[in-house]
Each structure stands twice: as structure tokens, then as C-alpha cells.
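Collaborator request, handled under Task 6.
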Amino acid sequence: MEGPVDNVDNVDNVDNVDNVDNIDDLEEVWMTRKMRFVISMAVLVAGVLTAVPARAQGAGVRAGVSGGPGQFYFGGHDEFGPVADQFWFRPNVEIGLGDHQTVVAVNFEFAYRLLLPQTDWHLYLGAGPALNIVRVAGNTDPKGGLNILVGAQHRGGLFTELKIGLVDSPEVKFGVGYTFH
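C-alpha cells returned to the collaborator:
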């Protein structure tokens, strides 16, 4: 008596699993479906990326002072967007020195731009999580944090920003910077 696993002749229709009589052929059907899915997703992503109009983006530099701990900081950032209407992703890294410690803040911030009529400036409000790597007396300790920010930016790239830190982020930061477009 021949069972369904012994018959290997019926794998012509990979869309119908009921037609598959062999374990190896079943694996082939699933691999074909996976490949179709991967190719479909790749085409979809490529289509979305090429359909998006060119957007303003840029990298930049920043520096400022912080309180709690009292430090001078400097760093860099990138700007992507808008990811939605007037909503920008602004990841940045800031290195704080002073108060007998070093703080490296890796911030994943989002900012909403408030356009001001008849001016080259806009205000922005934002927030985002932070990874703060604190080094004190030779001991390094990673800590999670949250930043809330408000700022003003000129269309030429100059900006100023105030950050309030929650959880294990520096309590307050005031900085200036420049985004290259």
C-alpha cells in the first residue's frame, strides 16, 4: 500500500498544499511561498522608497552646557524627514565632560516643527528615549533616559535647543548647533 509520503509526482501547484504528497515537496512549497513573500516585500519597499519625493535632510554639530551633572557637551546629529507632516527624526550623540564624570548620550529624538509665517525660523517641540553611558571614577554604567525638548531653527541651519531630562538623563541642557543642508 502506497501512502501520501511515498508519492512524489504531485508538486505542480505550489499554491495548493493539499496537492503535496511528499515532505520534501512540502518544504519546497513553503520555500517558494517564502521567496514570493520576500520578493513582494522587497518590491514594495523599493516602490515606496522611490516614490517618496526628495526631502531635506542633513547632518550637523552641536555644543552646550548641562546641569545635573554640570558639564560642557558637544556632539553631532542627523536629521531625517519629514517622516510625517512636519514630524522629523533627529538622532544625536552628545559627549558631556565635567563634574568628575563623562556622559555619552545617544538620543533617539523626534521633533514636530511649528512653522512661523513670514520668517526663516521655525519652532520645534520634541521628545525621545536616550541611552546614557556614564563613566565615574573608572566605572561605566549604561542608563536609560527620556528627553523632552523645545528649540528654534533657522532655515539656513543654525539652531538653539533646551532639553529637559527625565529618568537617568541629564536634568537640563542648553545648546546651539548647525545642520548642514
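The cover message to the collaborator said: "The beta strands are 58-67, 71-84, 87-98, 101-115, 121-136, 139-154, 158-167, 172-180. Confidence is low (pLDDT under 50) at residues 1-14, 49-54. Please let us know whether this matches your experimental observations."
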